[in-house]
Structure formats: C-alpha cells, structure tokens
Design goal:
This protein has 3 helices and 3 strands; from the N terminus they run βαβαβα.
C-alpha cells in the first residue's frame, strides 16, 4: 500500500526538500503541494490524501485553521 501525502508550506524550498525526502521511500507518494492554508483545504478535498504535512505558520489561513477546516 502506498501512502499518499499532501505537503502544505508557504516556503517552496521546504516543500521541495520534504518532497525529495519522502519520494525516496517506495511506499510514499507526494500527490500535491499547497502554498497556503486555503489551498491545502481545497487540495485535500480534491485529492483525498492519506496524510497532510501542514506548516502551522503560513500567511492568510494558517495551518491550524486549515487543519480545523479539513477535519
């Protein structure tokens, strides 16, 4: 079984680094990236990942509010 992951962080370099680390694992697939909380909520509804790696501090809708909306 492959775990599908959505990355949510406002810093592109962080998202790239996490993607590189996660994609080295045979059983993990990064299916999307979000640059803010609103995009994370939208992509979670659209892509239905198994896991969302959420940055807590982002401009606009932060990770805490986005997580509340997702849950």
């Amino acid at each position: 079984m492959t775990v599908q992951v959505l990355l949510a962080d406002d810093q592109e370099l962080i998202r790239r680094g996490l993607r590189m680390i996660l994609e080295e694992q045979a059983d993990i697939t990064v299916i999307g990236e979000a640059a803010d909380g609103d995009e994370a909520v939208r992509l979670t509804r659209e892509l239905r990942p198994d896991v969302v790696l959420m940055d807590v501090r982002m401009p606009g809708t932060d990770g805490i509010d986005a997580t509340r909306r997702i849950v």
